[in-house]
Amino acid sequence: MASIIIDLEASMAQFFKAKPNRSKQVSAKISLEVTHLDHLGAGIAHQDGKIIFVPGALPGESVRGQLTEQKKRHARATLQQIVTPSPDRVTPKCAHYDQCGGCDLQHLVIDKQRSHKQDALVSLMARLGQAEAETLAPALIGKEWGYRRRARLATFYDRNTKHTTLGFRAKASKQVIKIAHCPVLATPLSDLILPLSKVLNQLSSKKALGHIELIEANNGHFVVIRMTKAMSDKDTEKLREFALSHGVSLIVQGNDADLTLICDTPKMLDLDSDELPYYELDNGVKLSFTPGSFVQVNAEINNAMVNQAVDWLSVEANERVLDLFCGVGNFSLPLANKGAEVIGVEGVPEMVQQARMNATLSGLDKVSFFHTDLSADLSTQSWLGKVDKLLLDPARAGAFESLQWLKKMKPKSIVYVSCDPASLARDSECLLKHGYKLTKLGLIDMFPQTHHIEAMALFELS
C-alpha cells in the first residue's frame, strides 16, 4: 500500500511506493566445482545450466562462493572459501595481493599461468577468428618477479589527516592502496617506494600531487612527479636532496606537460635531451622516451619480442616496410637497421617526434615517421601504398580500421603484435578473408603474475 509523507514546511504531500532495501539482500553461499579458467583468469564453474565466473578460483577446486551478479546465461560470484585446493595453488608473494588491482594470478604456479595463457590464446583464435596456426611458436618467457622497468603509482591526499597515500589502485576501484613494496617491480624501483612516500609527505604542496612514475632505464633510475601547481623553493630543495641521496634523476611534470629536471639548477628537458630516459635493444638501437609515453614495461621480453618480429618478417635490404602504431620506434628502427626502407605511423604526435629523434640518435636515415589517426580515413595519406611487409602493434582496440586498406598495401607478410587476444582473433578473421594464412602464432608473457595475454602472429599471403 502506498505511504503518505507530509512535508509540513512545504505544506504538500508526496506519494511514493516503498522500495526494497537491496543493500541488505545478500545471496546464499553456494558450492561450486571449478573446471577451468577463462581468458581473464577467473575460475569457471557450472550450476543449473549456467556458467558462473569465480575470480581467484582454480581448476579442480571445490569452493564456496557468493553470487554477486545474475544474467540469463551466466553469473558472477566472489570466492568465499576454498574447500579443496588445487595442487597448483601457491601463496601469493605480495603482501598487498588481496587488495591491489595490479596482479591477479599470483595464486597460480608460474608454469600453469603460462600454459593457461597459451591454451586461452589458441582457443580464442579458433573460436572468435576461425584461425588455426600452422606452427605454434615457443612462448617468449623471462623473469617471473622484478621484471617491470616502469610503473605509475597513484596518490591520495586525506584532508582530515593531512597525509598523502602513495600506492596502487584497489581492484575495480579508485581507492589508493598504500604499498610498501612491489615484487613485480625492478628491485631498485620497489625500494624507492617507502622513502619516496616519506619525502612527499614533507612537501608543503603535497595537495597538488598527481601520479608518480618510476622508471628504470639504461641511463639510470628516474622518479617523475606530476604536480598540478608550482612548487616552492623549499619543496624543490627537499626533492633535490632526495634525488642525490638515492642516486636518481627526479623530474617534475607540470600542468603544461613541461618536464623540469630537479638538479643543482633546475632545468627544462626537451625531446632531444640526453638526460631523458632511454633503453637499448640487443642490436644496439637506442630509444629515448619522455615520461608518460608508451614503452613496453618488460625489457627482457621486449628485446626477445623485437628480435622475433624482425626474424619472422625476414626483411631484405631495400624492401619497403610499414610499421603501424609505431610508438617511439621500437620495431621501426630495428627493421631499418636491417637495411629496409621503413615507414612508421603513430597517432600520438609527441611520440612521432620522439621516434624521429631516435632515428637520428641511432644514425638511421632509411626510416620516416608520420602522425596519423589510424582509425580514420587513410585514403589521402601520402605514405599509404604498396609495401612488401607490414608490422602492426596496436593498442587493445586492435587494428580493424587500418586493415580496411589492405588492398592498397598488399604486403606479402604481416607480423601482428597483440596485447588483446580477442581483438587479434577478430582482426585475424579479416586477414583470412583477404587471402592471408596464419603461419605462426606465439605467446608473449609480458606480464607474469597477471592474466594479461600478449601474442605475436605471422600472416602470409596465400
Alpha-carbon distance between the termini? 72 Å
Q: How much of the residues is beta strand, in percent?
A: 25-35%
Here the CATH topology of the largest domain equals: Rossmann fold
CATH evolutionary superfamily of the largest domain: Vaccinia Virus protein VP39
C-alpha geometry = flat
Instruction: Trace the largest sheet across and list its strands.
Output: 8-24-25-23-22-19-20-21
Q: How many domain regions?
A: 3
Q: Which regions have little confidence, pLDDT < 50, spanning 5+ residues?
A: 1-24
- Count of DSSP H/I helices: 9
Structural class category? alpha/beta
Q: Using the 3D structure, state the CATH architecture of the largest domain.
A: 3-Layer(aba) Sandwich
